[in-house]
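Data availability (excerpt). The following record was deposited with the supplementary files.
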Amino acid sequence: MKKIIVLSLSIIFLFGCMARNIVPRNYFILEYYSHSEKDELKLEKPIEQSVYIEDTKVPRTYNRKQIVVRHFGPRITYSDNNLWGVKLSKIIPNLLKKRLDSYNMFKNTQRELFTSTPGYIIDSNINNIEMYISETLYQARLNIDFTYRKKDTENPLVVHSANIERVMLKQDFDTYAQTINEILLEEIDKFAAKINIYNAYGPQALIEQDNLPIEIDPLLVEILDSEEDNSGKGLLLVPAITRTENEPYYKVYDKYGYERSAKIGEAFPLMEGTYSLEYGSGNQDQKMIRKNVKVHPRYKTIVEPDWGCLIVEIMDESRNFAKVIYEVFDLNDGESFGSEFPAEVELGEQEKVWVLKPGHYKITINNEPFNTYTDFTTVLIEEGSVQKLTIVMETDEEGNPTNMAGAGILEESFLAASLEPLKLSSAIHINGNLNSDNEINENDPEVIITMNSQLENYLIYDKDPLYYNMKSVIDLGISKTTDTDFRLASDEFDLKNTGIYYFVKDLGFYGRFDVNSHFFDEKQYSSEDFYYKKFDDNNIAIGDSVLSDEIKIKSSFFPIELKEGIGINYRILNLSRANLSFRAGFGIRQFFNDDVFVYNPSETFIDADNIEHRRYYELASINTTGTELSLVGSFQLPFNLIYASNADFYFPFEKNDEYTFEWENSFNLNLFKHISLDYKFNLEKLGEDSGIDYLVREHSLFLRVTYFLR
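Predicted structure:
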């Protein structure tokens, strides 16, 4: 078994190496830049104060190694390969201390409280530290607060808040880290300037400077006046309702009348403010105007469509491209929005997208005027919708288009989705379950009431000659009886994969791979305490005897049951309401039974103290090959009843091994939209090595509430 596991891990590792290159992790630091020091902030004589600098407070969102990436909206991600190599809560106050010491700001600045008791405290608090990323814009953002206060009060003497967004000239994490470093030191300088002004000129100097009896050092004022525009940038998106890349450009005007062009469907970065938009097909007078569009920092403003789109396709009666000029008119006033030839898509030409006001339009061909009564059609353009008009042309003997044979909006077939070869569905089931099971004792079945939930996923690919079916079921439930507390009642993970290649209509080769396991430890309970002793698969005792009313018989994930097989598949029935297939081939069965124990009542023993013990012995892992036969079918019966059956027989090649079979039967009666009645009847015959030498019967009847995820 160990060889198999090692081989499997090796194969997975090799495939992983082939699939992608290993991306190295990058670590970034914040460091002190002495070249950015400002001489005007350096004091000849320090302020007679002792200051303690607290650790920076960092919100949980940003207090981690990964650099935070924001996507112009509420969505953030964490970069797995670009990490902070320093702890933000420590490095920021350390840089602050070094800066203040370099400026000879205070008599004493300290990061620990061991040396002396400070009279003043400096706090710092990060609100945001992140990289902003969009299709066209990269920004570094730092939102931080600094506070200078006396030790025994929370009332601040000096407060400096900065919310800086700076466009990164190079779009990489190296530039981001350096930009954040520069912003941080610049804001520390402004904070230091405010402290200098406060201590030299008093608190009023930070509020107004014109009415002071003494002139403030102009160099300090210049530092404070260097506050950059913190309004920040946002994104403006005029959506492409055709979901294509060939919608026209539109114009954006700011409050000064400055004009810029942007493409419909692409987010356009703009400074915070109010803008006007001009968009649409036709000449200047026919375009639409949208005023007072507000762009907010760090936010993507999406313009609600008040327009519709028109695409015109022209073909002949054989569905071949027809190159015929057409013209679009407003049906109310007869104004022309222009003429165009249709795009020959097969040659890579882009279809013309007309962006129009909601209303009725007239389309003519062959240069016919607006008032023509031949070779025309009309179309209604609605707000936020796309109309694809198809015009069909008659042709002459040489195949040249002549007159219009017909025109209209051809709706997509509602069957298109069902005709797709790949289908994926997921559902969550919540069940109330009445269960009768004689797996533990043949003549005394256990009856319990359980509540459980199931997550079912189906993936089907059906395109002749290939067919693939994947079904996964995760089943978790709890139970409670009169004499017990809540216990884990069901715990199963089941994955079935089957692929078939049909070389004739109903006959093909199949391959299968099934996995069955569970997630949690499984225990066996008793109404009374009992003595037990465990033995490994070599019949060697494991530990001493134990007195308890419960025993762990299975560890998490074990046993793991694998089924592999290849062979011939014959499709007996392939109807809309009935499917039945028979399979025969070569099979492999693997049971990994690490830490899996079973108990046989006939194998109890009495020790030297005349005490009866239950004997639990560990199952050995099994790997066998043999012949497998399967019968798989599903039937849609009258009265909303569905029956599914899967019978699986296995005959090992080893003479000493007995055959095994599993027969799963499921009946589902749909009562209401999301409510059904399910009955399952399963029969299972296991081998002697399983510790169960009788036919296992399992009945389950439950009321199921289903929610379809897709």
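Summary of structural features: The chain has four domains: 25-225, 233-302, 308-409, 417-708.
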